[in-house]
Amino acid sequence: MRRVVVISDVQAPYEDKRALKNVIRFIGEYQPDEVIQIGDLVDYPAPSRWSAGTRAEFEGNVIRDSEYTKANFLEPLRAVYDGPLGVLEGNHDERPQKYLASRAPALAAEDSFYRFENLLDFAAYDVQKLQPYYNFAPGWVAIHGHESPGLNQVAGRTAASKARKAGVSVVMGHTHRLAISPESAGYGGKLRTLYGFEVGHLMDVRKAGYLKGGPANWQKGFGLFYVGKYNATPHAVPVEDDGSFVVEGRRYGEIKRGPKGQFMQKDVR
Which of 21, 78, 127, 266 is the most buried (most CB within 10 A)? Predict the structure, then answer.
């Protein structure tokens, strides 16, 4: 049975450093058969509509954020895991190329430097740029989630809607919500079930300035699949506020001591 880890929206340099460190450690120890980063690996705030006309737009920082992501995600991940690694392009990841296309189309048509895969030097890290609706398991495809319109505020329902339209189970990011939502149809004992799976996020919500300190229906986490010959079983892995999580009875995260020296969390394997 194959095991596939699906990493949610990291949005570097606004990632939750503890959570991402623990996820990379987990991958190094678990050694899955494949790792998929579901999109929005980089936030790229400078060329976003939120920065238009502000000082941030003119500061640039696209190269800085790309180098940061290589140093804090690709390099440490490749230091512990040399298996298949694929990345989908999210709406944040495509910001530099879209910005160039809208502001300087004559350059965008001839310049490939600002393409996502080149900014992050995928070739050097042996990373495959995945196309939307990537078929990674029997009956399952992976998308980022921005490829088709429509969002539901209930966790899992956006993915379920996209699965219904595509006629295949869908795992996606984009919503920053964590849930598995199945839908079955049929009669006479002959049922077909499609799953929608939203894999949460790995962002430090405090750094999401556009929330202005307000609440967000977001859940931190990532996905794990057990893949057989004919089907795949999805699992949602919630990540706690301290960046820790449990997989197969083992907690991944730093052990902390309370004010009286007692252990606050422990390996539960």
Answer: 127
Which strand (E) or helix (H) includes residue 142? strand 140-142
Amino acid at 77: L
The model's pTM is 0.88
The answer to whether residues 264 and 244 touch, using CB atoms and an 8 Å cutoff, is: no
3-state DSSP of 201-267: ECECHHHCHHHCCCCCCCCEEEEEEEECCCCEEEEEEECCCCCCEEECCEEECCCCECCCCCECCCC
State both tokens at 95: 């910001």
DSSP 8-state class, residue 71: I
Q: Which amino acid is at 186?
A: G
Instruction: Find the radius of gyration of the CA atoms of the chain.
Output: 19
- Token couple for 105: 């189309």
The answer to whether the CB of 73 falls within 8 A of the CB of 12 is yes
Q: What angle do CA 196, 197, 202 make, to 5 degrees?
A: 155
